[in-house]
Batch of 4 targets.
Target 1
Amino acid sequence: MKKIGVLLSGCGVFDGSEIHEATFALLAIDSQGCEAVCMAPNTEFPVTNHLTKEATGEKRNALVEAARIARGTIRDLKDVQAADLDAVVLPGGFGAAKNLCDFAVNGAAASVHPEVTRLLKEMSAAGKPIGAICIAPVVIATVLGKQLAPTVTIGTDSGTAAEIEKTGAQHQQCPVHEVVVDRKNKIVSTPAYMLATSISETYEGIDSCIAELVALMQAV
């Protein structure tokens, strides 16, 4: 059975992985007859109260929190190699831009968690497909922009798109229910909640994203 890594950043849209997006990715992977391999970096992050949307002043561990979405079956990112996977996908949520990297603060000048950089570069070097949902394409752009000039989408937000292009990556506008496929670099992205106004819109794009990842896997 083909294995698709799901790189999580915590649990919750404002400080970790967006739960709907992560769950839809897991559902789509299973529907495609593949096995999801959940993982997250073993690192702490500041917590946001999801009711008030304000910082609480406390910190939590991304791996421990992501285990909530993975129902406890999750691996420390440092222990996952490209050889273990056939593809990888990054759900969105602010954790992608705050915990996996600091794009939310530093834009194109962002730094990326070293284990995230390692895995993405390993996957790219091995010619294995990479998927990114919602804001997560900024991670791909920051890691691979200068080297590969990949084409990605976060939807239509011009400010974020401008920062993506400063990394060397190319941004392509995309409606919520569609995906952008960079076939040369085997990268698939979809806007999801960057544009979605309903949960069904989010699912449609993510389902297509995973289907395109699987098609790229089969083309290897």
Note: Helices lie at 19-31, 62-69, 94-98, 103-106, 114-125, 137-148, 158-166, 199-219.
Target 2
Amino acid sequence: MELKGKIIQALPEQSGTSQRGPWRKQEYVIEIPGDYPKQVCFMAWGDKIDEFGIQEGQELTVHFDLQSREYNGRWYTDVKAWRIESGNEQQEGPPPVDPGQQFEPRSEAPPDFDDDVPF
């Protein structure tokens, strides 16, 4: 899946340690143009933060996967970027998914979290 728009906010990087070791993530808000512009918050994990180098004001195409998980009877959904395109420049990543194909989640999983925080 992909979104095209302008980065309107880069939130502070977050980091911590889980059973698998240290982790870090950063969230960004992209505004999708249209008659009724929409804002979507997505995240980048680990080395992708530095690889993407996302800055506020950039016009980007964000390729992402959706992942949901249940915690105490509530569901939480993450929008995880795996490739960023800026103009004609493309970052490396898997090829785009044909809309007619069955959705297959990426094998790269975020670290497990063992604390009581659901996100």
Note: The first strand starts at residue 2 and ends at 10.
Target 3
Amino acid sequence: MIERRTFLSMLTATATALVLPGCATPRTYEPVEPVTLTKGPYLLILDATTASLRFETREDLPVQIQIIGPEGIVHGTARRRAEHVGLPWGMEISGNPLDEEGEHVLHEIVLTDLTPGATYRWRLQASPDVVKSGRFRAPPSPTSSTVVAFIADTMYPSSAGVAAMLASHEPEVVVHGGDIQYRTNPADTWNGFFLAMEPLLALGPYQACFGNHELDEPEEAEYYFDRLWAGQGASSTPRYHAIPWGPLLLLCLDSETSDLGDPQSPQVAWAHQTLAEAREKGLHPVLFFHRPTYTLSKYGPRNLNARQVVHDLATTYDCPAVLAGHVHGYERFEVDGIVYLIDGGGGALLTNLEERRDEIEDARPGEPDLRQVAHRSFGGTILRVDDGTLRIERYELDGTLTDQVDITL
């Protein structure tokens, strides 16, 4: 539980008051100088009792924030870090707000000692006309039911519709499977991504895996992904991390810049240790990463080392499911009792899901028969955990349920 001193220490010295529940109503702020809100607010889980609320502005000025939890109401401002972003993103022809070169200011409040499963609400006012608000649940206990959303390969303009569809299921946490924006699409921007994801960002934490399109330009990972998602899961690298969430451990791997195919690599060693500790606590790990190890599309693996490493992790630690993106559509494989789900339907141009079927059959006879379902469509995935069952549901952009599988935990 957050004590008065602890909760106040989350904010800078400009925090104004802690008001006991029921003794005050939310304030309306009139900032001295309005700021341009460019990204967020969004929330990351750092560990089982710690979260980070972040947003970006162009001006290095304080922004008033209100956080309401079971311990009371806090008013204050976040700590700020100004950095030069040297990679502009987007073109004037796009309908999305451009990412401009220059100074960008990342605001952050770290919330510690969260009450497991408790609901917190946040509100900020960037200007008289711009007010943002949302809620999040602190990581729930291992006995709790929960809802998790998975989205990947988000591209303008369809990603906003997929996000809104997934938000209608009210997930408590979102995992992005990588390829957040595409340099090849002049309408994509990172500012536009955060705008499109607002329905999901307002519901809870938004964790992210690292995708190959986070490397469209040499500086992109540094200026955008690493800067914005640093510290997620309390990891020393934002590119692989894990968070406990109810009965699950949500573990994001890096299939792009860390050697997932080397069983002796630091990432794989970290995964073994993290998964072993999770199983000792009775958690059920679900693995997430960008580039799939099973698919019949053109993205079918030619180097099978990563497949073997991932499968060894999944079987050793009794992982019920492995989720990936990269393929712009939906496929579900079942291998040795493990569900391999590929869903890169977050908005990028759709992929031919049969392109390498014959080649794969020739190289590894019978492998195509492992695929249970395929849909060439935009959409996203919902994971529901309740009463010892993990139910995985795939929804298309229009909300149609096209696949469902139940796994006993």
Note: The chain is about 15% helix and 35% strand.
Target 4
Amino acid sequence: MLFVVSGPSGCGKSTLIARVMRDLGDVRFSVSHTTRRKRAIEVDGRDYYFVSKNEFDAMIQEGRFLEWAIVHGRHYGTSRVEVDEKDAAGDVLLDIDVQGARQVRASGRPASFIFIMPPVFEELRRRLLKRRTEDRASLSKRLADARGEIGAYPEFDFVVINEDLETAAAELKSVIFASRCRPGSSKERIEGILRSFSRERGRR
């Protein structure tokens, strides 16, 4: 099953996803493509696929993205192949922005949509400052974008308020467990159970 995790920059999506993947062990992460510069702590192919603007444009033209958007002045996108391959093997987590989440929903692809919300605006600012990855202009842009993105939460199936990491991680895992119990997520197994009832009725 596909889990689309979204929220403002600095709300803690990446940290939460890493914690959940560590705890569950059976959830895969969909690595996005981006044209932004790689940070010192990041690894190509693990955190993002870092590509040139020309490469990204070619992927758009070829229809290779499930979703893509310009965020904070840079291009980000989710490869269809990346999602299809990992989705075939089990549950997949996408860490994407609000624009991308809307595109995935519009595509009609079955997914659970989860919005990660900071406890207050000042905490979001503090987390972005603590990262020390943004200059003044970039920080202002991210905070301005956050003011617009925060109002999108009603579009999502679930909201997790990330005030305490342990609590938020437990809530995100609960969403995953609950979504696995939806009839559509267990369709093949349910059909097998129904067939067993039909066979038993035929013996009488």
Note: Helices lie at 13-24, 53-61, 80-89, 98-107, 121-131, 136-149, 165-180, 187-203.
